[in-house]
Amino acid sequence: MTASREFHERDVVMHPLSFEELRWAFDGVPGAVLPQDREITIEFLPPPPDAAPVQNPPSPPAQAPPPDTEIYLAPLTVRGDRVEIGAPRNISNSPGYDNQPSFTPDGAGILFTSVRGGGTQSDIYRYDVAGGRVVQITNTPESEYSPTVTPAGDVSVVRVEADRTQRLWQFTIDGGNPRVVLENVKPVGYHTWIDEHTLALFVLGEPATLQIADTRTGTARVVARNIGRSLRTIPGGRTIGFVQRLRTGDTVSLEIDALDAASGAVTELVQAPDGATEADCAWTPDGLLLLAFRDRLYGWRRGWAAMRELAALDAVGLHGVTRLAVSPKGDALAIVAAPGRP
């Protein structure tokens, strides 16, 4: 199973993994078996009073480091149905995990998650597009992921707290004044803002759910189940693009759907390429859906019957691409890929 390409193309949300996230990550991988028909409870009891003490107990196993990835920035040109990707440059340039890029609304910066110093704890960084400088935003004992600029201009993140709880937090743009956004909604994996009070959330579980949350009430409601990790606001309205995981027997396929946040109506948009076990989507300002799969960039517009191959990512030196983010003007693409040239 671990020799399969589909397995290694996956990029799970947190490190270390929760049990729920581990099961989600393996779902659909050839050779993986996930029993769903029974629950096993393990109860740990204290040793009897006369039990002999354990001599020289073994040390706990070391936590596996997160995958080694880099973030690249490339010029993007969209002319109707034609897409061109220019020469990418490495903007994270650090050994270890660099992931989850998100452009600031003015396009001047890119927020991203990074694990530095050879550990497993992550913080949020910002890349200045004009100056090429990287600045650390958060510096905490906890791990922060999925940085996103809020409608009010702060930065929202998924924080893995000291007790491993995953909740949505918020910082000022310079990393100050940390505070919980949704006290009772957990474990959150990913999020996107719809307006200043409303969010779409990927909430871990069996299965993972798409939830719409209100920061004024602190509550969330489930609107879809068994979804993928990609949540993106579709340009031009209060519509959320998300990935629906469909199972037919032992086969899992992916469908990109649209959720109307106001009515709760879900509309099927397009099927992901055959064989895709994960789909991280991005949208250009003019409504072109982009998706990377097996070193190729695919796209879809309303009116197209299926996704089309638009560009060869390996032709510009990018391999193992897992995530994409489009700049606000649609003229640049942030790409998470395996380290190496370019």
Structural class: mainly beta
CATH topology: Neuraminidase
Mean pLDDT: 86
* Overall number of strands: 25
The CATH architecture can be given as: 6 Propeller
What pattern of helices and strands is seen along the backbone? HHEEEEEEEEEEEEEEEEEEEEEEEEE
Number of helices: 2
Please give the largest β-sheet: 5 strands, antiparallel
Strand content: 35-45%
Structural commentary:
With 342 residues, the chain is mainly beta. It contains two helices and 25 strands. The protein has helices at 5-9, 19-26, and strands at 70-79, 82-85, 89-90, 98-103, 109-115, 122-128, 134-136, 143-149, 155-160, 166-171, 179-180, 188-193, 198-203, 209-214, 219-225, 227-234, 239-248, 251-260, 266-271, 281-283, 289-293, 296-300, 308-312, 323-326, 332-337. The strands form six sheets. Strands 1, 2, 3, 24 and 25 form a five-stranded antiparallel sheet that branches. The chain has a four-stranded antiparallel sheet with strand order 4-5-6-7, with no helix packed on it. It has a four-stranded antiparallel sheet with strand order 8-9-10-11, with no helix packed on it. A hairpin with a 5-residue loop joins β9 (155-160) and β10 (166-171). The chain is globular and about 45 Å long. 38% of the residues are buried. Mean pLDDT is 86; it is low at 1-41 and 48-61.
